[in-house]
Design a protein that fits this description.
By secondary structure, this protein is of the alpha/beta class. It has 30 helices and 33 strands. The strands form ten sheets. It has a six-stranded mixed beta sheet with strand order 6-5-18-17-16-7, sandwiched between helices. A six-stranded mixed barrel has the order 25-32-29-31-30-33. Strands 12-9-8-14-15 form a five-stranded parallel beta sheet, sandwiched between helices. The structure holds ligand MGD (2 copies) and molybdenum atom. One ligand MGD binds next to α24 and β17.
Length: about 775
């Protein structure tokens, strides 16, 4: 028992903070400098520059950073990447290796004492390794023995539903398709993925209201939009290339409204990285109007805007709403308008924390525009009423007829570079009947119909020992999921955990009785199979499917590609499979042929994927076709405002990313755009709240979270005064995940509420 505890809590050492002035604009020279310094340190300068030249080029590899699309036509010669894309590549192409020798010297207990930053910097894993029950060291294992071990354990289960198959969103279409095929032939739909913690709320809301779980805009729409509203998103750090698109909107006379509890630097001003002449100077202003909303105040804010728009419309009929669109394409309008009368602006206003005057300014801007794009990310999707957040913004777009026309629509900005593609390939615990039917027809087997576990349910199942095997296709499950201590117990309850990974991470030290690490090729590396060099394909945030081929020599001769690993496990496990797994791996064109036969939109896949820039998947909402909804029309919905009530001395806390991390991979210890250098255990607070709590800058505090009578504690954070609404605070993910209660999740989508955690703050004496 004692040993388990030791592994579950990441260390809490503080590093030595330095506070800097918050920069006035994003990107520009400091970004280039930072990118080069990471590349130099991890990869070496010459090799690194060669690598960057291939990033996001049509003959190169897809950036493992975010899912923001590349331009359809013109690609800058050397520079379709950003600072953080360069860092992501540097991390993957690092010279640092985690070999069997490393594992012989570092016990698992010893690794567990390192910080996430230190663990990540150890580098790429070179050989398959295993830890046996009761042992504290990983040791080398052959691929064959690893596959046999997995197959023996899987086949010994009482039911296939006792195994869980997680996916993180970097996995290629080819690997994802094979993975879900194997899992379903094995007999379960237990396919949770990182989407469950990410854009699941968007998928739920958009499928219900517009009939497709993906966004409707293309990159070109930003060239035509009259207004872009960016809600709950920090693109300066997480999707830097989006700033270029916003810059284009501005150049053409469009406006930008930003809705965020923090004045995120990148959204305010930026310096185009591809236009060095402009690096000197203040940069281009992006945001025209900033609404500093309280955490989870978005539905209240949108309702005020909707009510004010309605007032204007009633005063001057047909001046604001697109009645033709509403009549032709939607249902539920009358009911929706009636429901707005149940809310009063006076009651809604305190939830937003914004002056009415500023909300009126925003309403005036919206009222005049006919082509509106709304972009959003985790600031909207990780709350109890997250699905409501997104349905409410859809209401606004529907009123304005801003869906399915140029320069307008929904833009949920995806995280992982192929998270959207993985879903298209069938990585989902709730598969559609039509999809299972096609799989059965093509592969002659009976696919399971019972819905599987999502991430939260999977953790519960492992904790209750209803599930005994965990296999992770990429990702870092222990650090990405909520309730770290509870999730650690869940994983440690398993008979077997298998991590298919590129780099060492904390999930390798929180293992089941037997633990396996299977190292795979990264995006930037050559994938050589029997028929020659292979490429893979991915889908970006706007539904463009394109190819990605690595150019580097693989880091170690023992690495296998993700498709080859899936095939290896499948071949060993499935005794009666009619699928020829070895054949499929010889030539990935054969996998793509199978995708074409089972998934709509992939006609002539092998041909079209070879075209420069790839191809667009069909998107019904983009064409004003809402037939996939229950009524065949787009739907107005009634949505709930936040029901959070803070007691005295309680605060609402959001967990956010720094500028120097990729989810659980910590590139460095700085958050340059927020002026925090060399420390991650910090809590951002409003200065008035600090005063009321008797706290001073850099005081050391412990945090306690509250949920359904249970308290959770995270120790050792430094207080930082910041521009953030009163009673709102922010900490960094994953350090604060111990505080996120496993049962605190969004209605419908089941997404952990990583942006609404109720806490109190306790000064160390
Ligand atoms: N460099 C880098 N790039 C990444 C990632 C990374 O870690 N590093 N992660 C990738 C992934 S998987 C994802 S999902 C995306 C994440 O991209 P983001 O969603 O931009 O990431 P977060 O840091 O979670 O930022 C959430 C933003 O929402 C705001 N916010 C929080 N709560 C609320 C709220 O209640 N209302 C409103 N209006 N705003 C709120 C926060 O202030 C913050 O600006 O980025 C992807 N790209
Ligand atoms: N509190 C809090 N929790 C959150 C969030 C939050 O905002 N707040 N955000 C949530 C979100 S949006 C997401 S998407 C999840 C992210 O959850 P995950 O996707 O599980 O986490 P990552 O940190 O992206 O995973 C990094 C690991 O993936 C492996 N890896 C990298 N590239 C590859 C590859 O090409 N192949 C394979 N097989 N492995 C690879 C490396 O070993 C690396 O250590 O976290 C969620 N958790
Ligand atoms: Mo994400």
């Amino acid at each position: 028992m004692k040993k388990k505890k030791r592994h579950s809590e990441p260390p809490q050492k503080l590093t030595g903070i330095e506070l800097k002035k918050i920069p006035k604009s994003a990107v520009g020279l400091p970004a280039i400098k930072s990118a080069i310094s990471h590349i130099k340190e991890e990869v070496g300068l010459m090799k690194g520059i060669g690598l960057l030249a291939k990033l996001n080029q049509t003959d190169g590899f897809d950036c493992p950073g975010c899912a923001w699309p590349d331009p359809d036509e013109k690609r800058a010669f050397l520079a379709e990447y950003c600072e953080n894309g360069a860092k992501a590549v540097a991390e993957e192409a690092t010279k640092n290796k985690v070999s069997p020798l490393f594992f012989a010297t570092y016990s698992i207990s010893k690794i567990s004492k390192l910080s996430d930053y230190e663990i990540g910097k150890k580098g790429r894993i070179t050989h398959p390794v295993v830890v046996y029950p009761g042992k504290d060291y990983y040791e080398e294992i052959s691929w064959k023995d690893a596959f046999d071990l997995i197959s023996n354990k899987l086949n010994a289960l009482a039911s296939p539903n006792e195994a869980i198959f997680y996916t993180s969103g970097r996995t290629s279409n080819e690997a994802a398709f094979l993975y879900q095929l194997f899992v379903r032939q094995f007999g379960t739909n237990n396919l949770p993925d990182c989407s469950n913690m990410c854009h699941e709320s968007s998928g739920s809301a958009l499928s219900e209201t517009l009939g497709i779980g993906k966004g409707s805009v293309t990159l070109d729409d930003f060239n035509h939009a009259e207004l872009v509203i960016v809600m709950g998103q920090n693109p300066g750090t997480n999707h830097p290339r989006m700033l270029t698109a916003l810059g284009e909107t501005k150049k053409r006379g469009g406006k930008i409204i930003t809705i965020n509890p923090l004045p995120e630097v990148g959204l305010m001003r930026y310096n185009d990285p591809q236009n060095p002449i402009k690096w000197i100077g203040k940069g281009q202003q992006l945001t025209d109007l900033f609404l500093q909303v309280k955490i989870n105040g978005d539905v209240a804010l949108l309702k005020i805007i909707l009510k004010l728009l309605l007032e204007k419309e009633q005063k001057n009929p047909h001046s604001i709403f697109d009645h033709h669109f509403i009549k032709e394409y939607t249902v539920g309008y009358t009911h929706f308008i009636e429901d707005l009368a149940n809310y009063s602006i006076e009651e809604l206003l305190p939830q937003t924390g914004i002056e009415l005057k500023i909300i009126k300014e925003a309403t005036d801007l919206i009222a005049q525009k006919k082509k509106i794009i709304i972009c959003w990310a985790m600031g909207l999707t990780q709350h109890k009423n997250a699905v409501d957040n997104i349905r409410e913004l859809v209401n606004l777009l529907l009123l304005k007829g801003s869906i399915g026309k140029k320069g307008a629509g929904t833009c949920p900005v995806r995280g992982h570079s192929n998270v959207q593609g993985d879903r298209t390939m069938g990585i989902w615990e709730k598969p559609k009947e039509s999809f299972l039917n096609s799989l059965e027809k093509e592969f002659s087997f009976k696919a399971p119909r019972k819905h599987g576990y999502d991430v939260v349910d999977a953790i519960e199942a492992m904790h209750q020992k209803k599930a005994r095997i965990f296999i992770g296709m990429g990702g870092n499950f222990i650090s990405a999921t909520p309730d770290t201590t509870y999730t650690a117990e869940a994983l440690q309850n398993c008979d077997l955990t298998v991590q298919i990974s590129t780099k060492l991470n904390r999930s390798h030290v929180i293992h089941g009785k037997t633990g396996l690490i299977l190292p795979c090729l990264g995006r930037s590396e050559k994938d050589l199979q029997e028929s020659g060099e292979q490429f893979v394909s991915v889908e970006n945030s706007m539904g463009v499917v394109h190819s990605s081929s690595g150019h580097l020599q693989p880091l170690s001769e023992y690495l296998l590609s993700e498709p080859a690993i899936v095939a290896g496990i499948a071949k060993a496990t499935l005794k009666n499979s009619t699928t020829n797994w070895s054949e499929l791996i010889k030539d990935y064109d054969l996998i793509r042929d199978k995708i074409e036969s089972t998934i709509p939109g992939f006609e002539n896949y092998n041909n079209r994927i070879r075209k420069k820039g790839g191809f667009y998947l069909p998107n019904s909402a983009r064409n004003k076709d809402f037939s996939p909804t229950l009524t065949g029309k787009a739907k107005f919905t009634l949505n709930a405002v936040s029901d959070i009530i803070l007691k005295k001395d309680q605060f609402i806390m959001m967990t956010i990313r720094t500028h120097d991390q990729y989810n659980t991979t910590i590139y460095g210890l700085d958050d340059r755009y927020r002026g925090v250098i060399n420390e991650r255990r910090v809590i951002f607070m409003n200065p008035i709240d600090m005063k009321s709590q008797g706290l001073e800058k850099l005081d050391l505090v412990d945090l306690i979270s509250y949920f359904e009578g249970k308290e959770r504690m995270a120790k050792g954070f430094l207080v930082l005064p910041y521009s953030i609404p009163k009673r709102c605070t922010a900490t960094y993910f994953p350090e604060a995940n111990v505080l996120v209660p496993i049962q605190s999740k969004a209605r419908i989508s089941n997404t952990p509420t990583s942006k609404t955690i109720i806490i109190s703050i306790h000064k160390r004496h």
